Amino acid sequence: MKNQPRRVENVQTDKGSVPVYATGIVEQPWDEYTAADHDVWRQLYERQREVLIGRASDEFLVAQDAMGMTPDRIPRFSDLNAIMRDATGWEIIGVEGLLPELDFFDHLANRRFPVTWWIRTPEQIDYISEPDLFHDLFGHVPLLMNPMFSDYMQAYGRGGVKAHAIGADALQNLTRLYWYTVEFGLIRQPDGLRIYGSGIVSSKGESIHCLESDAPNRIGFDLERIMRTRYRIDSYQKTYFVIDSFQQLMEATEPDFTPIYARLAQMDSIPAGTVLPTDTVYHRGTGEGWPSDADV
Ligand code: PHE
Ligand code: CO
Questions:
Q1: Each residue's pLDDT tens digit, 213-242
Q2: 191 Cα–ligand 2 center, Å
Q3: Cys bridge to 96: 7, 38, 233, 249, which one at CB 3.0-4.6 A?
């Protein structure tokens, strides 16, 4: 029988139907993975590694090799944890799915990365709308082996706890930063643009699209500009932001964001596909195939 997340979904309340997320940490039920689960992992892993050679950043590929993940079977969190603990002090914790924001921030601030324990079905190989084991483990965990990037993730978690206390607008600004760096970031290498964002590295279609399509914008990283930029979660990104290095990301996000949040609260948000006169443009998107309805 197929493994199902033990998550309560879409509970009826007086406000209508709301999703309920499990907040508890679960032991990875490794013995319960079926042959089909391991096979989905193997297929995705092999296909994606091939796509990522020459497309993912050197940092990502080096980190992934160092973790010792292999295609033959779903890794055990406990094996990966032994390696990560020595490298950067991070550990993986198993979860059922998306966590409430504050719980998520608190885990990151303590160098714990929540990984969804269940994997998509064979029918969902090309697309799944919520994070599963493949996205979390293959996409996010490797860069936690990179000292500088893993420090960024922890700083983000601490920043999240702070933004949560400030209010909804601050949280939205910070979430956009996560989206356009951790999930969908590109990095400039001497030999060209490369991917480091987890949402891209776990998707075959978007790995090719983000670098090779003429449709999206590719624009230089700019902290406040990103914090004002809306995004969609259900289609390829209209704009990708390019960092020069993890060092640049660390330095740009080091200052206290409190005054930035206050300033941005007075400014309009920017649609996902807009290019501003002040942008550093590596590629101006043709906009081909873009959905015309509103960004989130
Ligand atoms: N410097 C940010 C703050 O003061 C914290 C942060 C660091 C946020 C790194 C994101 C990434 O809130
Ligand atoms: Co993710």
A1: 999 999 999 999 999 999 988 889 999 999
A2: 26
A3: 7
